[in-house]
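re: ur question from the group chat, yeah i did fold both. here u go
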Amino acid sequence: MTGREKEVATLQALLTTGEAELVSVIGRRRVGKTFLVESVYAGRIAFEVTGIQNASNQEQLENFSIALNLYSKSPLPVQSPKSWLEAFRQLILFLENTAGTEKRVVFFDEMPWLAAPRSGFLNAFGFFWNSWAVKNNVVVVICGSAASWMIQKVVHNKGGLYNRITKRIHLQPFSLYETELYLQKKGLNLNRYQIVELYMAMGGIAHYLKEIQKGESVAQNIDRICFSPGGPLYDEFGQLYPSLFDHSENHIAVVRALSAKWSGLSRGDIIKSTGISNGGGLTKTLEELQHSGFIAEYLPFGRVKRETLYRLTDEYSLFYLKFIETLRKEGTGVWNAFQQKPIYRAWSGYAFESICLKHLPEIKKALGISGVFSNSSAFYHKGADGMDGCQIDLLIDRDDRVINLCEIKWATSEFILTKSYAAELRKKVALFKHYSKTKKQVFLTFISTYGVLPNEHSLGVVDKELRLDDLFGRGG
């Protein structure tokens, strides 16, 4: 098990509580939920069943029966139940007949697929928990990739499962630190520049990263995995959203719209771009995408709630829509050749900025402000009264009366500040102070791959600089 120290410790602790536990494990597809549960609870799982995508209720019940027969090892097969109440009655009988002294685990994987509409699954599961499991020495784990469904139907259930969850785990993609550990465990000793290149295309999704092969360059790996017919990520996008959401065409439309605007879109902009009507349907789509980790909402500094923007934060989805979708038919070697194009530089800059936003705890630790309460956001102003506009990639507004304005740049070597660029940075700081009316101390923080090359133009401009290595730290 690589990384996941907190999650592993949480799951292990549930075995020692002396009471029944109901734990929900939520996370996007391919993030490693099943592997985590099965690894931590190896040897303790008394029963496990995994839902089947797009199966009928009868097929799910037959699937349950097959799983129960495998675990019971009975010479007489368990009869396939006609309802979920009957299915859980069979499960209770099996668990009672195989009881021991150790705490056991019952694992329902891909629960949203098991609980088809009007199937009666959730009511029957509530009966199982309230009438039997809660009185016994068991850990019941429920898991699902459709994070929004899990939250709405189970975590916030208003019926028999109301307030029954005893522990929640929302499994996030690997951080850069965890990605490095994972690749090292696989015998892949890539430098940190190469690791970030891979992360920009695939994110910290373990199932994607396991396809990286030793002895191939980053470009070769990306070319084989993403652009070669039969490559694992060649058509993953077409399967990803339908596997998680009903009416996934709306989710895909929103993701496509956000992929076209680096800085994000407002709700109104999304409506104009997608044609999705304003109302509960759009709200549900946005919430589901957020809960599953594909998009994020943020409020720019100094703005009001209605000016909230949404950004695409899933690295693979952005990479697919920008490159794989249009280039995969070009043949082998296309990615290596395309890296010299202007669109590659634009994408890499945005992708690196997005990675920095995901590693704010590491950035704060590198700045020595982990213990200082702060709010992080972007800033933009269109300009007025003949003055230029101003856009800040990231600012950290601290309670110690300091604001870090972060300039983020992806470069292949130490970044060289020219005279004109240094003047541009000074102007940006001045414009921010003017438009924001802030009375706080403002520090310009430069985040780049290899830092800033000291010269006469950088002196007095850059107050603090961070490098790739700082993003690989463990957040405070």
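okk and heres the other one u asked abt
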Amino acid sequence: MIFAGPLVIIAQQINIGSGAKMVIGVGATVSAGSAEASGTVTNTDTTRLVIQSSASGSGSLICGGTPAATVQRYVTANRWNMVSPTTNAVDGGTFFLASGSDSWLTKFHEPSGTSGAGAGTGWIYITKLDSTLPPGNGFSYYPSVNETVPFAGDLTSSNLTPSLSWSGESYGYNLLGNPFPCTLYWDNTWTMPNVEKTIWIWDGSQYQSYPGASAPHYVPVGQGFFVRATAESPSITIPASKRAHNSQAFLKNGDLLADLSFIVIHAYNNDYEDKVQVSFAVNGTDQFDNGYDATKMFGLAEAPQLYIADHEDNLSYNHLPLISTSETKTVALSYIPGIDGEQVITAEMVNFSEMNVTLEDLKTGEKQQLKQNPDYTFMGSKADDPERFLLHFNSSAYGIDDPGSLSESNMKIYASGKTIFIKSTGDAISQGGVLCLYDLTGRQLAEYPFEKGGLVNVKVDFSNAYLIARVIKPSEVRTAKVYIN
């Protein structure tokens, strides 16, 4: 029997006996029972059950039992592909002996792979044909021609709990993968104590992040993905109940939730792209929201790298509380070009009808209203300070100052993280001053003298608080309400 897609087959029991063969083509789906595996497939020969794969996707099987099968995984030439075996009995020889080209296979070593894993740290080459590659573990494979790798062995139909390691706050990255012969639905409901609720999938130039609540995602057949342990004794259960038939092609973006107000900032340079997302909702906080926020993993050095520097870890997703029309939120946006030259930033906004967004370029001093003009083109260099941009949300771009008086002042005050920024123009550039902080009752809390300069950054010793910031210079006194994370 050859099932070619699009085709849906549902049966309670499937028995593939001697002389029979079942081939599930790309786009075809076969179910024995449900995702909870109430039905079974019986087969003892890997050549009699074949699930095919191509550049457009894979066939799909949901069943109970552990039937023998061959599950194909299409891989693209001249790039690293994050892969994961779909059967047991897979080893290094599965790749090297099946390959008709030069090829390289690696695994990821958590104790040596830091948050800069995308830059190449932590990878170990696999050179032995008998190296065991178990289901649920991820690997990275580089062929010099397009290939279809056959995983031959017994299928998995129950929960899988791969081992995780954690070597400290700067580490914790573990490369796992989808162990099932169907897509795997990733969301915020998996059991994963002491693990960030985000997966990262390599798209050829960037690690695309998918926080479980903000960006649920269908993980394709044979696809590897990263998770990050955050403390001792991390664990994760890859749930069989999340198996699904889905035509999700390899590495497509997950669905963003429509009930959030969010903005996606895209950066384009050197024929590559990167992006970050900032969202606002009633359940958002100024702290790290596990499942909504996502740590940034850095991609190719020749690709642009865009990230949010509001937390101890750089972020690619930042989920914040709702802000009223009288409030302003400033988010620091950092950027590293792939190559020197022209760079483009584009904003995509959803449910932002009541909110203004201003992009401020700290290098040039330019400010642009992104709702009126979502595209910003500028010149950039790898030698530039990465902390180049600020995103100001709501009608006023600067604290509680009257927007109508901005042009009359030579100082502007805003905060990001635990840093207060004092931007000066005109005579104020050549003047030092004092930053005084008050609580909302007017009680003075601290003073911070600072030197002259066009943009001064003052680190403060407060957290999770609204404060009144007063800047005193010989030529002017300026006050703003700020929030310190």
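fwiw on the second one: Residues 249-258, 396-407 have pLDDT under 50 and may be disordered. The helical segments are 92-96. idk if thats what u expected
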